[in-house]
Fold Lipocalin/cytosolic fatty-acid binding domain-containing protein.
Amino acid sequence: MRTTAAAVVMVMLCMKMVQANVKPQRDFDLQRFAGKWYRVGLAYDSPSFVPYRDKVKASMGIITTLPNGNVNLTMWDATPLGCQTQLYQYENATVPGQFTYFSTRHNMVKDITVVDTNYTEYALVLKHKVFNIEYTQVALYGRSPKVRNDVIQKFKAFALSRGLSRESVLTPPPAENCPPADSER
Ligand SMILES: *[C@@H]1O[C@H](CO)[C@@H](O)[C@H](O)[C@H]1NC(C)=O
Ligand SMILES: *[C@@H]1O[C@H](CO)[C@@H](O)[C@H](O)[C@H]1NC(C)=O
Ligand SMILES: *[C@@H]1O[C@H](CO)[C@@H](O)[C@H](O)[C@H]1NC(C)=O
């Protein structure tokens, strides 16, 4: 019994350490991060998401910045009901490159960390909830619907290092006509 408790504490400490070492992109520049991105990679281990893995598409999103450092992310998702837009509001946290976000789906506040970006090509983003792999997501955003293979490899390695399973790491095909060609900015 005692060893079990000790093991639990050890695991929690290890998780906390893993948690603590996620640093955002150094000298994060919000203005350069704004604009159009494609979510070309997604790693997500939630059991409720497994049935949707083969239906995911590389959605397009636009990041607009607000004067206080908050961010609006508009995503276009190809769904069985057609192309739908969704707005996500990320709140500026105390460290540049870090945001918080209230997930209506999970009814909890999550942390968003822009782990690595070169602004003109890719951004590696971690969405997480301390201690719970089920609510952890790693996303790879590209400025275009296709990114270089070494960037994809970097994304995969990072997702695995966060404890996500190999099967959870997806590089979905582009969304077709979503947003509809005539409305694309
Ligand atoms: C985000 O919040 C931090 C801490 O309050 C602040 O220092 C920073 O200037 C804000 N970022 C922007 C882009 O306004
Ligand atoms: C961000 O989203 C909020 C809520 O919909 C909206 O009121 C606000 O105008 C948006 N800001 C920008 C800069 O898009
Ligand atoms: C970012 O990616 C682009 C596209 O491959 C590349 O040309 C550029 O050199 C990269 N910038 C940095 C700072 O790595």
